């Protein structure tokens, strides 16, 4: 299980994302300063890669940004996958990657869709996030991320092969959205 350290990180996650997000083709860029608005974590069974599915808003739109935190650069990382490098107060230098282009994150997303991985609270160690609803898909071979989130209506739960989770919408209301679907 992931351990959450209460320490410093320079630059911080929002600072890293502030430089990286505008370069992404799916980023709408209609708002202002980025604010953390929700998300959850997944565990890497090998304990080497931190995995976080973070939601940020810019006052206009909400974005899902899956991230991998690594203790060394990702060998063979695709161009543009590196979000940035930061100094963590406990763990030292960390390389942050777009989780959609990190093989460990991609595998854990598929495991989540199969019902084999358990979502964890974003800011608490070893705590299951019961607010994340998973409609598992046993045949999932990949995950399609919803980068720009749109609230979904009230429903009994997710359809087969999708993950629905909560976040704070740009207007400050609590919302739920489909974060990813199986393929």
Global shape: globular
For the residues shown, what is the average pLDDT? Answer: 90
Major beta-sheet overview: 7 strands, antiparallel
State the helicity in percent bands: 10-25%
**Number of DSSP helices?**
2
Q: Oligomeric form of this entry? A: single chain
Query: Strand share of the residues?
Result: 35-45%
Which properties best describe this structure?
183 residues, four-stranded antiparallel sheet, 10% helix
Describe the structure in brief:
By secondary structure, this protein is mainly β.
Describe the structure.
The protein has a domain of 122 residues. Helices cover 10% and strands 36% of the residues. The strands form 2 sheets. Strands 1, 2, 3, 4, 5, 6 and 9 form a 7-stranded antiparallel β-sheet that branches. A 4-stranded antiparallel β-sheet has the order 7-10-11-8. It is globular. The two termini are 27 Å apart.
Element layout with pairings:
Blueprint: E1 9-10, H1 13-20, E2 35-42, E3 50-57, E4 62-70, E5 82-88, E6 92-98, H2 103-113, E7 133-135, E8 143-145, E9 148-149, E10 162-168, E11 174-182
Antiparallel strand pairs: 1-5, 2-3, 3-4, 4-6, 4-9, 5-6, 7-10, 8-11, 10-11
């Amino acid at each position: 299980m992931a351990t959450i350290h209460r320490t410093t990180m320079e630059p911080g996650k929002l600072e890293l994302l502030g430089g990286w997000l505008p370069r992404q083709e799916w980023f709408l860029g209609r708002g202002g300063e980025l604010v953390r608005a929700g998300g959850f974590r997944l565990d890497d069974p090998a304990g080497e890669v931190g995995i976080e599915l973070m939601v940020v808003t810019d006052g206009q739109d909400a974005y899902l940004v899956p991230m991998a935190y690594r203790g060394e650069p990702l060998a063979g990382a695709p161009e543009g996958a590196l979000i940035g490098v930061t100094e963590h107060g406990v763990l030292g230098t960390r390389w942050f990657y777009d989780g959609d282009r990190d093989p460990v994150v991609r595998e854990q997303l598929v495991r989540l869709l199969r019902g084999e991985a358990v979502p964890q609270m974003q800011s608490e160690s070893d705590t299951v996030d019961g607010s994340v609803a998973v409609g598992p898909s046993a045949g999932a071979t990949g995950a399609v991320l919803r980068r720009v989130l749109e609230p979904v209506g009230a429903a009994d739960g997710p359809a087969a092969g999708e993950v629905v989770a909560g976040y704070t919408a740009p207007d400050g209301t609590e919302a739920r959205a489909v974060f990813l679907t199986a393929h």
